[in-house]
Specification:
The chain has a 20-stranded antiparallel sheet that branches. Strands 2-3 form a two-stranded antiparallel sheet. The two termini are 32 Å apart. By secondary structure, the protein is mainly β.
Length: 367
């Protein structure tokens, strides 16, 4: 409790006495509507509902930066992100940074690590999904030297466990995390490797996440992101539970025409109860979107997607998604995205193979 009170007070004091103060923010308004949707990834089955069902979410993020001098600065963040139109603002972390020079800086406070962010639009939130590593939050310290980064600290977030037959959810008070990453730039390209270790100090409960991210940039015509991720739990066991995943995301730009795509495949233990969890709710999907730019402000995409919709390769829950996507950028830092998507269940495990249709709209602006 003392820590929760102390950090906002220190942040407020820094704001008052600082020589420079900046506020940055992001707002997103999202809404969707679906008719007879089937999505086994998230347990959705509305095939017997005759109504059009809709949901919407609202996001408002604020970051306050205080610059004390050429070496010292601090950042504090709050975030409102939830379903509905009235999300509550919550504390989202703060840290103090000391910059020695261009090669060396230190951070202490609340830090977040993620690796291999998807370019694919439906999985691009690293708080939920990742080709490599989803968000890992700590309260600790970090050193960045040259193109290497090392951070360590206590895990921030909720943990669920069973106590006398009841599920208990509370702040994690046992786990700690160590994260290391290194960048190797070559020409216009970048190779990045990372290791993330987590332990809650109990027997056979530790985990290791590691991987490599390759960025190839042949601007302005072609770029590619490729990710190899490895997931391992219970490291002390004789036979640890390994899972691996590969992702390839190319993009080709030819002026008014472009082509982008994603291919993802995960290798899991045949018995899913023994498999280490991955960061995506299906073991394979493929996405290809040809696009056409009619102006600097408006473009159209025509994606085709194939999804297995399950982590078990014995399931037959495959679906194909098709439908246009619309991109509008009326001004700098303002974007509107929308699509109409039709889903075709083609797997044999569906009782109803009826097509479902949906539409989504997202309005976002930054300041």
């Amino acid at each position: 409790m003392k820590t929760k009170i102390l950090i906002p007070l220190l942040t407020l004091a820094s704001i008052v006495s600082a020589t420079d103060f900046n506020v940055h923010g992001e707002v997103k308004l999202y809404g969707d509507g679906y008719y007879k949707q089937q999505d086994p990834r998230f347990g959705i089955d509305n095939t017997n509902d005759p109504d059009l069902l809709h949901t919407y979410t609202s996001t408002f993020k604020l970051a306050f930066q205080t610059i004390f001098n050429e070496h010292w600065n601090a950042i504090a963040k709050i975030n409102a992100d939830a379903e509905g139109s009235s999300p509550r603002f919550l504390y989202d972390g703060a840290y103090l940074q000391y910059t020695k020079n261009k090669m060396l800086n230190y951070r202490i406070g609340d830090l977040t690590y993620s690796e291999g962010k998807f370019k694919y639009y439906d999985y691009d939130d690293t708080g939920k999904f990742a080709a490599g590593l989803r968000d890992r939050n700590i309260r600790g310290a970090e050193i960045n030297f040259w193109d290497m980064s090392l951070g360590a600290g206590f895990k921030r977030g909720l943990v669920a466990f069973e106590d006398n037959g009841f599920e208990v959810i509370e702040e994690d008070s046992r786990s700690y995390i160590i994260h290391f990453a290194a960048n190797i730039p070559f020409s216009t390209h970048l190779f990045r490797s990372y290791i993330n270790y987590e332990s809650n100090q109990a027997s056979e409960s530790n985990s290791l996440r590691s991987g490599m991210v390759l960025h190839l940039n042949f601007a302005p015509y072609f770029n590619l992101q490729a990710v190899h991720a490895s997931y391992t739990d219970k490291l002390r066991k004789k036979y640890p539970r390994f899972s691996q995943a590969i992702t390839v995301e190319p993009e080709l730009n030819l002026g008014m025409m472009n082509l982008k795509g994603t291919f993802y495949y995960a290798f899991l233990h045949d018995n899913l109860e023994k498999a280490t969890p991955i960061e995506v709710p299906e073991y394979m999907f493929a996405y290809l979107e040809p696009g056409f730019s009619f102006s600097k402000k408006f473009s159209l995409g025509l994606p085709v997607e194939y999804h297995t919709m399950s982590l078990d390769d014995d399931d037959n829950l495959e679906q194909i998604f098709v439908g246009p996507r619309f991109y509008l950028t009326p001004a700098e830092r303002l974007s509107i995205k929308s699509f109409v998507r039709m889903g075709f269940p083609i797997g044999d495990d569906y009782q109803e193979n009826e097509m479902h249709i949906g539409t989504e709209v997202e309005v976002a602006f930054h300041f």
